[in-house]
Amino acid sequence: MNFSEAIDxxxxxxxxxxxxxxxxYIYSPYDEExxxxxxxxxxxxxxxxCQGKQISxxxxxxxxxxxxxxxxxxxxxxxRYGSNSxxxxxxxxxxxIAAIAGREATxxxxxxxxxxKIRRHLTQREREVFAxxxxxxxxxxxxxxxxxxxxxxxxxxxxxxxxxxxxxxxx
Length: 171
Known about the structure:
The protein is mainly α. It has helices spanning about 5-10, 15-25, 30-50, 55-70, 90-100, 110-120, 125-135, 145-150, 155-170. The chain is elongated, with a radius of gyration of 19 Å. The model has no long low-confidence stretch (mean pLDDT about 75).
């Protein structure tokens, strides 16, 4: 199986993958698109794994996908679904990022004024990501997936840019 066939396989088995994800939603701040991104990444890894070993693509995919789900899904209970580590969204640094990204504009908070004050500390790309994420364009506040579409990059790139910008602003 090649990479494009693996992508097609994930798309054709999307219903089954999403049913598998149902066990993880209750423990996680992530949404369906985040998990589907993991499914595509697992499919890519499965292509490489099944070429090197004598196992089927499906077996390699499910093995890798479930392992990844358990690693990225916080679960403080003793259930077999998810990681028993502290959820990253409870960590101070990640909490600050999530709070800014999910914040709705309120009358007492002038996001444009704040953005004007911090923009000199940001690169051009970081300014673009912040403007789109904070709703400072005519498109309104966008999710990382929508920002990625606008900027023609991956959602992971958007998150990395956003995290770097937060760190630069903190300094």
